Structures are given as structure tokens and as C-alpha cells.
Amino acid sequence: MFPRAFLGIYGQGEDFIQAGIPVLRVVSIAMIMMSAATVWVNAVTGTGNSKMNLFTEVATIIFYLVYVYIVLEKMNMPITWGWASEWLYWSIMFIPSFWYITSNRWKKINI
Predict the structure, then answer these.
(1) CB-CB contact of 87 with 29 (8 Å)
(2) Can you tell me whether residue 109 is helix, strand or coil?
(3) Residues 51-91: tens digit of each pLDDT
């Protein structure tokens, strides 16, 4: 909301602020996504199905690593695109968790 004021705290000058504003926007959106995804991931945790949590986390990390490697190492895109990996991470954490809870499969699990 106030990127100049926030980034100005670090005393790095105008170039730092200009470079940081797009990153701050990407990360801010990622934090909103994290808030929603975490609720659904914790709902899956609450069911006691640790295999589902493990599957979700492993799949997410694989996609995350591949994305970061391709975007930053192979394509040499700006760091803002690297931080956009958080969008991918939280989207992939959210989707299977949301699906699992809304499908009611968790009701059939025996612990």
C-alpha cells in the first residue's frame, strides 16, 4: 500500500526502491494466497491423512524447483519472476487440499 515508505526504511536510495516495488507487489499477493492456502492445508492436516499432506508438499516442491530453475537459470528472467514462484507454490498447495476436503474423501479415512 505504501511501498516507498516501506522500502525507504532500508536507506538504500531511489534505485533500490524502484527495483523493490514490483517484488513487493508480487510478494504481497503471494502472502494473500498463502493465507487462504494455509487454512486448507491445515484442514487436511486435521483429518489425520499425512499421506495426502506428504503428496501435496512433494508435488509442490517439485513444481516449485523446476519453475525456479527454468525461470531464473535457463531463461534469466528478472527476479520478480523468481518471486512469482510463490504464487505457484501456494496455488499448488491450495488446489489438492481444497479438492481433498471438498470431495469428502477425508470422511472415509481410518486412522
Answers:
(1) yes
(2) coil
(3) 999 999 999 999 999 999 999 999 999 999 999 999 999 99
Nearest partner of 40 among 109, 108, 97, judged by Cα: 97
Residue boundaries of the structural domains of the chain: 28-106
- CA–CA distance from 80 to each of 21, 22, 35, 84, 103 (Å)? 10, 7, 20, 6, 35
Of 10, 22, 15, whose CA–CA distance to 82 is shortest? 22
Full-model pTM: 0.83
Looking at residue 61, its pLDDT comes to 97
Q: Which residue has the cell 492456502?
A: 37
All three cell numbers of 33: 494466497
DSSP-based three-state secondary structure for 48: coil
